[in-house]
Amino acid sequence: MSCVLGIETSCDETACAIVRDRRKVQSSVVRTQIDLHKKYGGVVPEIAARAHIEWLNDIVAQAMHRAAVEPADITGIGVAHCPGLVGCLLVGVSAAKALAFAWDKPLLGVHHVHAHLYASCLIPPEDITDQPSLPPDYPPWPAVGLVISGGHTALYEVENFTALRRLGSTIDDAVGEAFDKVAAILQLGYPGGPLVETLALRGHADAVKFPLSLLGRESLDFSFSGLKTAVLYHVNGQGGTQRTSADLSPQQRADTAAGFERTVVEVLTIKVRRALEIIRPRSLIVGGGVAANQAVRGALQRVARQAGIPLFLPVQAYCTDNAAMIAGLAAELLAHGQHADLDLGVIATA
Ligand code: KG4
Ligand code: ZN
User: Fold this and answer.
1) From CA 63, how far away is CA 3, in angstroms rounded?
2) CA of 36 to the centre of ligand 1 (A)
3) What confidence tens digit (pLDDT) does each residue in 27-61 have?
4) If you measure from the C-alpha of residue 116 to the centroid of ligand 1, how many angstroms do you get, rounded to a whole number?
5) Can you give the residue ranges of every domain in the chain?
6) Which residue in 22, 229, 280, 312 could disulfide with 285, CB within 3.0 to 4.6 Å?
7) CATH 3.30.420.40 assigned to 3-138+317-335
8) Cβ(9)–Cβ(89) below 8 Å
């Protein structure tokens, strides 16, 4: 029986979680720094790192308390050590090393992006039963994995959760970043994904046609900066400065959001289909903040159904950054006999 404590501080969420038996979330505490960064329109690394330092001890104590566990119950300490903002990662990694050393527990360095895929296997506390077999099962291997977050957009061939090969990734903006930038163009606020999604519900997706950027017939890479620029020119005029979104009618703004979201969904659908044709996997796994988007979830359900394979999606709470996915993947690594030394480093891009 494993009982792993996970720490996540790679960007602007300070989080700690306790996960038992690799998949059963006992507690997941996430404190977001949105209020600290929103006046800047994006995450300020120095402010983020300082807030992690201030908040982390209390978040760890809360996670332990809510799960009703003592240090003696813990079988491993997992921490996101790549990729992310270096100053932020260092806070979590230093704390994890201190706990591993003080409590004499194995330390596990976890890849944040891989953990987003693992999130699909987590069982929230309210769904945990005494049944020995718990839904959903692990994905049948091999799988194709799609991570769509604010910092990353990537496709993977997943042999299992400890053996992943990247098939393609974004050459410019991540998909969540594109949502955030479109929200800024439409003056909706930050972070933009949920706000664009809500506005898009009132729009007609076919009222505005934006270009699809597919990077050639074979490519599994992504590009979203052209789409963002197309939205900017549509809203602000060709030079990008003649008007603002305030000059559009409410319906025109909603149509813009819907047209943008539809274009993103089309790109993701086409790329995932390509990956499924190449890999011929037995399942599709999706994770990351944008996986919370209902239009995206629905489109990927259809892709998986047409391919005749199951789709593994995290529940909403585990789509965006959290530490339960870090603790879960750490438990998986531990079960595969892996652990890190106390000289574990942080890596900004991996
Ligand atoms: O996974 P995540 O918390 O952070 C990274 O690892 O980057 O993803 C955050 C991103 C943000 O860009 C946010 O706008 C986007 O996920 N997001 C959404 C939705 N909820 C969050 N994008 C579209 N629709 C949503 N409902
Ligand atoms: Zn993330």
Assistant:
1) 12
2) 17
3) 999 999 999 998 887 889 999 999 999 999 999 99
4) 12
5) 3-138+317-335, 143-309
6) 312
7) yes
8) yes
Q: Is the full-model pTM beyond 0.85?
A: yes
Looking at every residue in the chain, the average pLDDT score rounds to 95
Q: Whose CA is nearest to atom 14 of ligand 1?
A: 193
Q: For the domain made up of 143-309, give the CATH fold.
A: Nucleotidyltransferase; domain 5 (3.30.420)
CA distances from 37 to 46, 47, 293, 306 (A): 11, 8, 23, 41
What angle (nearest 5°) sits at the alpha carbon of residue 32, between those of residues 267 and 343? 90
Sign of torsion over alpha carbons 335, 338, 343, 348: negative
- Helix (H) / strand (E) element for 164: namely strand 163-169
Confidence of residue 348 (pLDDT cuts 50, 70, 90): very high
Could you tell me the two tokens for 72?
A: 């003696």
Q: pLDDT, tens digit, for every residue of 264-301? A: 999 999 999 999 999 999 999 999 999 999 999 999 99
* Number of neighbours of residue 265 by Cβ within 10 angstroms: 18
CA of 319 to the centre of ligand 1 (A): 8
107-128 burial: b if 16+ Cβ within 10 Å, else e? bbbbbbbbbbbbbbbbbeeeee
Closest atom, ligand 1, to C-alpha of 175? 12
Which ligand has its closest atom nearest to the C-alpha of 30? 1
Taking the CA of 149 as reference, the closest ligand is 1
Q: Are 315 and 23 in contact (CB under 8 A)?
A: no
Domains 3-138+317-335 and 143-309 share a fold: yes
Per the CB < 8 A criterion, the answer to whether 158 and 142 are in contact is yes
List CB-based neighbours of ion ligand 2 within 5 Å. 149, 321
